[in-house]
Structures
1.
Amino acid sequence: MLGYYLDLAVRSLKRSPGLTALMILIVGFGVAASMTSYSVFRAVSGDPIPWKSSRLFVPQIDIWGPKGHSDGSSGNEPPEALDYTDAVALMRDHRGKYQSAMYRVSPSVVPPDPHMHPINVGGHAVYSEFFSMLDVPFQFGGAWGADSDAQHASVVVINSKLNQKLFGGANSVGKTVNIDSKDYRVVGVLDNWNPKPTFFDVVNTGGFTTGQEDVFLPFTRAIDVGMGNDGNTNCAEVPTGSGFVGLQQSSCVWIAYMVQLDDKAAVSAYKDYLDGYFRDQKASGRFNWALNNRLRDLPAWLESEHVVPSDTKISLLVALGLLIACLVNTAGLLLAKFLRRSSEIGVRRALGAPRMAIYVQFLVEAGTVGLSGGLLGLLLTWVGIHGVSWVLPKEIASLARVDLSLLALTLAIAVLATMLAGLYPTFRASRVQPALQLKTN
Amino acid sequence: MHIQPILVALRRHKAGTVLIALQIALTLAIVCNALFIIHERVAHISEPSGVDEADLFVIANQWGAQYSTQETVERIQQDIATLRQLPSVQEASAANSYPMRGVGWDNFITMQPDQRAPTSDAAYFTGDENFLRTLGVKLIAGRDFRPEEVQNMGLRQNVATPVAIITKAMADKLFPKGEALGKTFYAMTSTPITVIGIVDVLHRGDVSTWSAPYAGESMVVPIRLAVPSGLFYIVRAKSGQLAAAMREAPKALYAENRMRIIDPKDGLLSFAQVRHRAFERDRGMAILMGIICVVLLAITAAGIVGLTSFWVGQRRRQIGVRRALGATHRDILNYFMTENLLISLGGLAIGVLLAFGLNLWLVTRFTLAMLPLTYVLGGVVILLLLGQGAVFAPALRASRVPPIEATRPA
């Protein structure tokens, strides 16, 4: 029976090719616009580490008190990052399963080949647990050990791109890299790890950048050699001391921090620890305001940092609005199309077709329009996703992809939405009075 | 034209009427808000920088070696001298940042050292006595820095500057009663800073939304930033020689000292590129909203044509009867035009509410500005014209239905 209805639908659609083409175009454009925006939204709002994000936490301590929110821009939020004193204290106390303080660096690397110019690289100064906490994959070697943190060792983990540039992609573990005029021993080479957003340090990277994470070196070593931070430095007051050391002694915040806590008990224990830390500091006279700490898990943290650009959300919303407008339009056209065939419906009903049969017949027709619109939509979505790089910044546009789930979703939305739009016209068609129709003819 | 019969006829096509009206309402709501977003972005994109954009370019310089502050100062002076010697270069200056860089330094500004809520958050530029001249910024009051005022500042060093040059926008914010020259303020400093000069416009380093309340508020202090890990050489080419200067400058710098890094990707940017990069997001959003507007308007027009054509086809007999009873071509044309006008007006009435509703939602969720009434009125006019334009062809076809149709079976 379905095959017969399909045949009927195709015949009916062929009878008014203009109207049919119009409906298919409308559905196609509506679906493509929303799917293109959705693909961008999906790319930037996805969970960067889905298997673990609920176990990763970002601590915040209100070290500035009321004067830190005096301009009213941040509400009652404590600073987004940690100052040096607290970051080091939290690392020393070591209350999480894994944890790492980190700050962004942008040193220069002098290639071993004397004919090459020095190159600028990006990266982070981290603790050894960074790699196991974030399940960072290695191509060669591995992370440095906790002993290297303690010894402030000159070791480095580089990414495969830098390894390609410096060592031609060979296993470079044990080789030496000159970073900011000092030698570091390579202990590991990353295996193409470049998560978007750069969730481990959104404060200093903004989440989406075209910047690369080329080098990771021990936090303790970077502090020793005075490797300056390349990211945001926020101060409630100007540091009294000078230089990078002055920054370390100040209350300026510039260090990102992440801790892994595996269960509820660990989370509440850590929260207690963090609150206790604040109270101790308050008791020692450092703060004179109320406790105002935060311990957000990664998804909540990314949300509070507004990592997903609001433009992306607005575009998605407007595109969804466009889809709805398209569906209303399609509903109107389907209504016109179906009711024009009142006499045909009258004949079918008079010959004994139940209302259900009329329903199925017309929903099949709507679905056929939807499927055709969906196929056009697929094509237009593909064009759209390749076209967004002309319109959106590269760091965002390059993340949007066409994949199987997007294709399936596009088709499903086109068919379902069009059938939904056809529901009322079909209902009207099924209400056609056979006697009346037969009489007027 | 009698409206009554049209309303009666519409009552017989309730569903179709409601669907067209709803379509128009949705279109109005989306188009108004999209046009408003476009307008805001375009206004942002066309903000004046205050600098001589046609002849400027910027080199982001970093050294491969770790120099002391004194060594860095010498390198900078040597580099600036090298740049100045180029035949195509007019002027060069070293700075911590430049207008529209995308990010930048900023300091809270207070009028008293112990003031809690800051008066402003100004963009903070460090520049020497050539900074303003190189950028081509217009000094409207006071004087430029003197060479002996310029102090060196190493990495995160604290340097108290007794003087600053500020923009007119900042002067107006800090001293609303006028006469900013000679007055003092604090920029997270313990000592006061005296305003010695006022420039007309100098755009902030950042172009973010957070700094919108402080738009155009920039200050320049007489400091030569001397950090080996990076600073910017702002170079002004002789008129019309930008391309030549941009070719020669990096070559000359590398020839002088090859242990430096000028990023091949974005180490060398003309100001046109700087502007292009700074507003990439805004331009993208404006284009996207523009595309959506066009598609939506096209779809709405197509929908009106489609449904009206259907109605005309359905009513051929009635039209024939009216023609037979003496209605003119014009009467029939007017009938369909008026019918569309009535539906459009109904849809637009709902659309105005929807438009403000959508805007209110965007305002609360994404801190957009309030939609001005003119946009809604503009949208109403656009959609009325669109509706009338779309209905014209089917209405014209209807008016050509011959009276003989009255005698033919439907």
Note: DSSP finds 17 helices and twelve strands in chain A.
2.
Amino acid sequence: MGQLIFNGLVTGLLIALPALSLALVFSVLRFANYAIGSMLTVGAYLVYAFNAGLGWPLPLAALAGGAVGAGLALAIDRLVYEPLKGRGGVTLLVASIGVGIALENAVRFIAGSSTRGFAVEVARPLRLHGLRINQEQITTIATVLLALAVVWIVFRFTRLGRAMRAVADNADLAAVRGIPRRQVVCAVWVISSVLATLAGVLVGLDGNVDPQMGWNYILPVFTAAILGGIGNPMAAVAGAVVLGITEELATLVLAPHYRTMVAFAVMALLLLVRPTGLFAAQGTAK
Amino acid sequence: MSGLVLENVVAGYRGRPVLHGVSLSVPARGSLTVVGPNGSGKSTLMKTVVGLVQPQKGRVLLEGEDVTRLDAPGRARRGLGHVPQEANVFRSLSVSENLKVAFEFIPARSGATFASRLEAVLALFPEIRPKLKVAAGHLSGGQRQMVAMAAALMPEPSVLALDEPSAGLSPKNAELLFAAIARIASTGVTLLMIEQNTRLGLAVAARGLVLVAGQVKAEAPATDLLSDGLMQSLYLGGH
């Protein structure tokens, strides 16, 4: 039981990064970015190229991959989303589905469809109070908590963070207060793609790097973001942890490969009962 | 010198004009209240002034400078402060964050610091000082309107554009707010206001303008408009 809750916590934290990324884009650009899965895949492959291709150590490769991924996200925004500005959330959602398919196939075209793994040492799991803890799990927990702390600090205490929250809250008012929307949008894409790349690395460490890896996360990521209330980035993290633990605990009564079904069930239930999210009761969240 | 000038402005939505050649001029440190029946184009006029709607024809001048092609953030940085009619505070941000974000993206004209501007606007609106840490969405309508006005004043705008400040307020709160607007006008800011409540709106302005069906029907000293019985009954529905 303790092991399951711990595993669920780690799974949840893994989902938290792309869920936060999704909620951030949704709150500022007002559309559900279906390409989030492919952004995760592309990020993993970029880091893989620096790690296995050039032989860089993983942390350095992750930095480089994050930078290239951010550049790619900015280019996609310029080419696809910016020209469609103001066309409504559904149009942008459909565009993002196209972007997702294009990205995944670009990965297949360049890197092939075979499964790969990062060049890291295999390490023994730790044992602590009866819990079995993998090195990858420790890496995941540390990385995710650090990333969340950085995003939280940027959000709460910086000029950029206030600008992002202001645009998310009321874009017209932000404009008359002199906040340059374009810069805020670019910052959102940079943060969003770096989070997706980090998630790609962690998912790749947990399992493999393959062109499908991001698709498998789309459902849990959307569920977590909706669980938190999709326009509310930090609550998406809480949603992710709740979902991760639910998924793991469900393996007590269901075969493990039905885990996706749990995410589906949670999402369906949520949309029926509380479409604004679990934490949207505070009144100020819109 | 002119604070704000509109020259033959034609503007509207999706190519269909709502304003048909509107011209107006507010002298620097002067004040003008625009009144008119519902649907006369008052809101479109305000949006055109602040840059949320681009005019199809005509020019907008801010302190003599042509700002017609500038978007809303560009005009805000040139010294145009705006208080929209509704949704005029960031509800999920605290009051102090609302004031901060209103200050930090517009270069202060006198080089004043945030702290000194904060003290200046809190002196105008002492009611919001105890609410600084509260989320703006949790304030009453009257308090929200004051926060919105305080936020617009943070970067020391040369022109302040107010869109229906009394909308949704109780008569008592509206009186309080207009007392504050009179104080603001006396600080030397150029004031353009759109107002449904003719009596309150014209009482704090030097001049009044009557807008009907997207055209200027009259422009005169505010006191003359208030006492002009014909104008009242024809266009303003008053007595």
Note: The domain at 2-282 of chain A is CATH 1.10.3470 (ABC transporter involved in vitamin B12 uptake, BtuC).
3.
Amino acid sequence: MREPDATGRTDAPLFEVEDLTFAVADRTLLQPLTARLERGRVHGLIGHNGSGKSTLLKLLAGQQSPSGGRIAYAGRPLAAWGRRAFARQVAYLPQQPPAAAGLTVRELVGLGRYPWHGALGRFTAADRERVEEAMRLTEVAGFSDRLVDSLSGGERQRAWIAMLVAQDAACLLLDEPTSALDIGHQIQVLALVQRLARGGLSVLVVLHDVNMAARFCDELIALHSGRLIRRGPSRELMNAADLQAIYDVPMAVLPHPETGMPVGVAL
Amino acid sequence: MPPVGERPEPRAGWQRPALIVLALALAALALALRDLALRLPPGQWGAALLAPDATDTRQMLVHLTVMPRIAVALLCGAGLGLAGAVCQQVLRNPLAEPTTLGISAGASLALSAATLWAPGLLAYGREGVALAGSFAALLFVFGLAWRRALSPVSLVLAGLIVTLYCGALASALSLFHRDYLIGIYLWGAGFLSQQGWGVAAFLLPRLGVAAFLIALMVRPLTLLGLDDEAARNLGLGLTGARLAALVVAVSLSAAVTSAVGVIGFVGLAAPAIVAIAGARRLRDRLVWAPLCGAALLWLTDGLVLLIPTGYREVPTGAATALLGAPVMLALLPRLRKGVLWRAEPAAAVPRAARPGLVLAAGAGLLALALWGALAFAYGPRGWSWAGLTGIAEMLPWRGPRVAAALAAGAMLAMAGMLLQRMMNNPMASPEVLGVSSGAALGVIVALFLTEAPSRVVQLAAGTAGAFAVLLGILVLGRRDAFSPERLLLAGVATSAAFGAIVAVAMATGDPRVGTLLTWLAGSTYGVDPGEAAGFLAAAAILAGLAPMLARWLDILPLGAATAQAVGLHVPRVRLVVMLAAAVMTAVPTLVVGPLSFVGLMAPHIARLIGLQRALHHLVGAAILGALLLTLADWAGRTIIFPYQMPAGLLATVIGGPYLMWLLRRR
């Protein structure tokens, strides 16, 4: 039930940014950035703390207005998108999901359907179905009637991701979706993200753990002090020199004992 | 990464606060020197201060009235500023000040009660009575919030309820004993006139001790500004630290209150002004807030002295808001996110398993109440019950009032629900935001400018006032997408200015004040059938339209980022919700006055009995608001027949205890 994007140009790149900058007072958080993101891939956004990852994500999500430069989604400037039309295309998960006082998981996930039915439209059977499916995919169905605020950190994070899935957008922007999760649930969530991408979604995800990023992302984008310094397929970026440039600490890359995948280790 | 949208923190946050304090103090000094020069040649000033010539009346006058007055203004301002800064830190709320905790309301009630029933007590000094009242109110507030480890939200909420309740009781007393209590009005308004150095000598050691104790507590206080977990993690006993800090702050402000009366707004404005000006760290605020408070009060007092005294002097305590409110409004655009306000994770709330059933029960209760209000009454021949058939006979008399109360209650409750959801703040309500005050101000202007204004003129003036406040809020809020904290502060400033004007009006002793007092307390007495029909129609239309906002109201409490992420045009949505709330406030304010607090209580009660989804919450609040005002109106007609008590006042008396019980239970 996904609509074609409003321009009808499905060949347009997902995001196109040109000379994008963001500054607060005299501090520049994002240096002029020009890049294109392709559809149907999982992009991992990595970098040190304060490198501008979250800022970039907020700019792409339309949560903040850039200080300069242009952002286009599906070939159309961000400003030209209506809020709801944009929300049908792009779903955004902030780094710290807010408290959801008095809402059950099912109700929270149901709010993800807002872009589709709006303030007055009927909450149809199809909406309900999407909500159930989203809860099943994220494995929160088991506690769907519990209050969100009564859940553990990991459960709550998955409930929020379920809301994003129910939003049924073509693109997910996730700001550290695994920060509150144990390693099992981290793998679970990222595998889900990967599965969604195989189903045609595009994903841009901020991740702290470079190994998780390498394992689940098709392509890595590395920021350093607000500047894009590396970009490439995950496997190619997993080498000692590049990792050292990204994180400013000496790194080594070892082959995984079983899969042979490169694993980065700080020395 | 630091939250984007903030300027880099300045290294030393003292230049701008210092500049503001200096500007205020210089202006005050100029006024004081001018006043002194009129009374005494400059050459004799030193002598007048230190060793006045007892035979020179002018010197004695300066020594015993002018100079102590300046000293008292400075001491009171400093004390209130310090107490306010501590309270705001402990409660993590920019709206907190000692009066938020019920202190002046408790003092005022205690004084009123003592004047009427135990005048002997006053012979021992009203300071003692006022202090006892303050601490009784404070104990009550602590008792209500104790189970939640005195958490900021529950403290502020409990303080607000106790304030309202004491205020309602005190107004009820003053309605019946206006002649006896005129002195309390004057005391309550905060006069600074002195007849000697006694008050200054009373205040100085108390301020010194409090400042010393607070200086000892700077570190725990800094930790209290973090959230509870972080503070506890750092080894701080939360309840003990909060209790100690609050007791010091409250004792200080109770001393000020008992010495000179209620001086509103300084405790709120001084810390807010220095924080907005850039005193970011707590220790900076603790230094600059008292200085700013002292300068602010001194300047206000200087300005008050400029006003030619007519029938009576204008009380300084009331005038503070007139000066402080504009200063604060002017500074609001500088308010940085996160400096004053941090959202509190909401406490776990109960949730009704079957909200539909709860609503149906509420509707049934409302129907019963309506029937009772129409049929059951106390008259010259005792209690009478009109049953079903007799209602038709009574309808022309009782109908309009019941209808007006019903409509007003429902509308105010819906307005409060909209504002609480939109701002995600339990203290938000039309009364707190100043929209009610604006409407009331319009009516007051009409009352004083025209001879016996008709109901229609009052309606027009009230509507104009409400929309003027709304317009101000809109202009002020547009710059940052109507951020809740600024709106709340602006609303509080407006309400404070309004309270000041009312207090000044009361001190004039004008006979029209009686009418005003009745109307402010909220009376349905003058409603005619045509107006009642109009109110009912307005309520029906608004209640029909409001559910269209339900989805927005479900999403808005999740914050602006989430709301935008799911496709809400946040500024536009906030504008629509605010407009709806304004209309829902302006209309009922004309019926029940600005002080009913139904808009604050009904949405809270609805939420606490478990109505969490926006639609249930909305309908439940409307039913409860209607129920509350209908019952209050009925009680007001019967309790002291043939006299009447205003419904708005009784609504607080009836709803208050229930709200307290709910708060205590959860």
Note: Residues 1-11, 337-346 of chain B have pLDDT under 50 and may be disordered.
